[in-house]
C-alpha cells in the first residue's frame, strides 16, 4: 500500500507533525476504506493468522478481547506498519532530542524491527480488538520490553452510530505535579488516531516538560466495535 498517490498525498505529514507536537495526537481521516475495514474486522474470527488471544476481563484490562497477529502479518497490516513508520520516526527522533533521551530511531521499520529482535523482542504486536455492548478498555500503555517506539496508531474499523454506540477513544495526559487532562478523539470508520505510547514533550511557558500518556476506550453502549492496533516495537 502506498500512502502517497501522484495526485494527492494521502497523509499530510507536515500537518501531522504539527498536530502531534501541539496536542499529542492526530487523526488521519479515511486511512482505510470501508471495504478494507470490513475485511479486517471479519478476519477476527479466522482460525489462523494470530499468535494469541486475550480476554481483557481475565487480566483486569477491561472487558472485550483482542488477538495479536502472527508473522507474517496480513499484507494490509504489514503495509500500514511499514508506510506509517518513517514519518513517525522523524517525530520520535525530535521528541527524543527534546526529552534528552539518547535513543534514535532508524529511518526504516525493518531496521527498527531488527533492533527489537536483537533485544529479544521478537513477537509481533499488531492486533485486532473486539468490543461488544458493555465492553471497555482501561487506560493503559502498550509497553512490551525495553525498546519502545514512542508513537502508535489505532484504526477504527467499525462505523460509529451504525455498528456501535459509545466506545469512544480516550487519551489522558498526566502532567508533572498537575491534574491530568483527558481528550476524547472522535473517529469515523477508517480513521486512524496517532498517539504517544508512553511520554511526550510539551512546550510550557517555562520550557519543555514531559507528560505521561495513557489510552483506552469508554464503555460501549451497544453494538460491536472493531479496531486495528499498530504498534511499532515488537514484544518480548
Ligand atoms: O480499541 C481502541 O480504540 C484502542 C485500541 C488499543 O488499545 C490499541 O490499539 O493499542
Ligand atoms: Fe492499547
Automatic annotation (TrEMBL):
<feature type="domain" description="Fe2OG dioxygenase">
    <location>
        <begin position="122"/>
        <end position="235"/>
    </location>
</feature>
<dbReference type="InterPro" id="IPR018655">
    <property type="entry name" value="DUF2086"/>
</dbReference>
<dbReference type="GO" id="GO:0016491">
    <property type="term" value="F:oxidoreductase activity"/>
</dbReference>
<keyword id="KW-0560">Oxidoreductase</keyword>
<keyword id="KW-0614">Plasmid</keyword>
<dbReference type="GO" id="GO:0046872">
    <property type="term" value="F:metal ion binding"/>
</dbReference>
<comment type="similarity">
    <text>Belongs to the iron/ascorbate-dependent oxidoreductase family.</text>
</comment>
<keyword id="KW-0408">Iron</keyword>
<keyword id="KW-0479">Metal-binding</keyword>
<dbReference type="Pfam" id="PF09859">
    <property type="entry name" value="Oxygenase-NA"/>
</dbReference>
<protein>
    <submittedName>
        <fullName>Proline hydroxylase</fullName>
    </submittedName>
</protein>
<dbReference type="InterPro" id="IPR005123">
    <property type="entry name" value="Oxoglu/Fe-dep_dioxygenase_dom"/>
</dbReference>
